[in-house]
Structures are given as structure tokens and as C-alpha cells.
Q: What sequence folds into this?
């Protein structure tokens, strides 16, 4: 015969187990994720012949810096690699560029702010043993004048598609870096098209 105390304890144990089960699933899912590192050295593939003569401040939003894409058991931390690539696009379009968190009016001739609008990662196993990975990234580019009044707001995207027989993390890395490269190239074209005022010649590339 089970006493009332024992019965209450059993019910409490069952309730605790029901609470713990989803927590254990989340912990297991997080622990089993494999983080794929991507290059921090991506930059526009074509240098600009001239730059704006102004100094630019570069702001990467908190959402962009925290950007993560997940699929299957793979995880891409996009924040710093994406911000570094975008910083180099501004360096290639303005006399100089510097990252800033909260620029103040008059600190820079121009301020360029980047925000992560969307990102996605898709991994598919094919019947022939190959793996197909698609990665897509869209970034919002906002430009501000010396007085911090916004002058434009546009979006640029990058897409990477890779399919082959190889280690999945290598395919994920290549797809992500392809998308990052496209974002950098498209952001560079966008910034150059919107330049106004005096220009300076770009420095020749280092040998």
C-alpha cells in the first residue's frame, strides 16, 4: 500500500521529470551543434579606382554582430566575419574607415550602418551521396551625413550554393563564404554609386 506522502512524492517526481525532459533536449541539441568557422578576411574582390575624401564611421548593429545561422547540427556565427567584410567595403570606398558604436554628430564625414535583415542555411543530403548547401544573407545599408541625418537606406544580398561529395562542414564553410563575398561586392558597388564630393585616388595594392 502506498501512503499519501509516498503518492505525493511520486507525483512530484513525475512532474519534475516532465519539466526536465524538454530542458535536456535543448541542452543536448546545443551541445551537439557543430560550429563552422568562416574567414574573417573577406573583402571586395575588385578595388575601387578612387575613394571619397571623407573619413567614414562604420556601425555594425547588435543584431548583425549576433547573427547566427543553423541547419541540421551545424551552426554558423556570422557576426564578426560579416562585420569585418563590410568594414573593408567602406575602407575601399572612403579615405579611411573606423568602427564606431555610437558616433556623434561631426565625428565623421559620413557614417555607414549595417544591419542584418535575414540569413538562412539549408543542408540537403542527396541520393548520390553528395551534399547540397545553400546560404543566403541580406544586409541593410544605411548612410548618414556628418549631422547623422540619414541620406539613404538600401539592402544588399549574397547567396552561396555548393553541391559535392565532401565533408559537410567544408561545404557549409564554402557556401557561407561565397554568400559573404557577394554581400561585400554588392555593398562595395552600392557605396561607390552613392559617393559624392571630392575624390582621392585609391592606394595601389600591396605587392
A:
Amino acid at each position: 500500500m502506498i501512503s499519501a506522502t509516498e503518492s505525493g512524492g511520486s507525483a512530484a517526481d513525475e512532474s519534475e521529470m516532465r519539466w526536465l525532459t524538454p530542458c535536456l533536449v535543448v541542452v543536448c541539441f546545443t551541445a551537439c551543434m557543430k560550429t563552422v568557422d568562416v574567414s574573417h578576411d573577406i573583402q571586395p574582390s575588385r578595388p575601387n579606382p578612387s575613394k571619397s575624401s571623407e573619413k567614414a564611421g562604420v556601425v555594425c548593429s547588435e543584431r548583425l554582430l549576433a547573427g547566427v545561422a543553423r541547419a541540421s547540427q551545424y551552426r554558423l556565427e556570422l557576426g564578426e566575419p560579416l562585420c569585418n567584410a563590410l568594414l573593408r567595403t567602406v575602407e575601399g570606398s572612403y579615405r579611411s574607415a573606423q568602427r564606431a558604436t555610437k558616433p556623434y554628430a561631426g565625428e565623421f564625414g559620413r557614417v555607414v550602418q549595417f544591419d542584418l535583415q535575414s540569413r538562412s542555411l539549408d543542408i540537403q543530403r542527396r541520393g548520390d551521396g553528395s551534399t547540397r548547401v545553400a546560404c543566403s544573407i541580406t544586409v541593410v545599408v544605411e548612410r548618414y551625413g556628418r549631422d547623422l541625418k540619414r541620406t539613404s537606406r538600401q539592402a544588399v544580398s549574397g547567396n552561396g550554393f555548393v553541391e559535392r561529395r565532401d565533408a559537410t562542414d567544408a561545404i557549409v564553410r564554402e557556401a557561407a563564404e561565397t554568400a559573404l563575398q557577394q554581400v561585400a561586392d554588392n555593398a562595395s558597388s552600392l557605396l561607390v554609386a552613392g559617393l559624392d564630393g571630392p575624390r582621392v585616388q585609391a592606394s595601389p595594392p600591396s605587392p
